[in-house]
Design brief:
Elements lengths: L2 H4 L3 H8 L5 E2 H11 L8 H13 L3 E8 L2 E8 L1 H25 L5
Antiparallel strand pairs: 1-3, 2-3
Helix pairs in contact: 2-5
Pfam family, one: PadR
Organism: Kribbella steppae
Protein name: DNA-binding PadR family transcriptional regulator
Length: 108
């Protein structure tokens, strides 16, 4: 999938992945890959800056833990993140309807 196609949609997708349970960065990458049927194979250089940006904005919170002797940061959705996710889902539905209306005229 082209990176340009993700522009504006990556943040809600990340928030959706951590909606039900806190996850560390690598688990978020794996969940995005799995949920997208292998289409979203994000490099760490894309994911981790997005996680930091979402945390700075107050949509995610994080905490450090040690698992198997390795430190990792686990991210979870905040109440502001829940509101942002709901908004992102609605924006996606609107965007999808607009694009389908243009690409498939005459079909409902």
């Amino acid at each position: 999938m082209k990176a340009d196609a993700l522009r504006g949609h990556l943040d809600p997708m990340i928030l959706a992945v951590v909606e039900n349970e806190p996850l560390h960065g690598y688990a978020i990458m794996e969940a995005l890959l799995e949920r997208s049927g292998g289409e979203l194979d994000l490099p760490t250089g894309t994911l981790y800056p997005a996680l930091r940006r979402l945390e700075r904005a107050g949509y995610l919170s994080s905490e450090w833990s040690t698992v198997g002797g390795r430190k990792r940061r686990t991210y979870q959705l905040t109440s502001a993140g829940q509101k942002m996710l709901a908004s992102g889902k609605q924006e996606w539905l609107t965007f999808r309807a607009v694009v389908e209306g243009v690409l498939r005229p005459g079909q409902a």
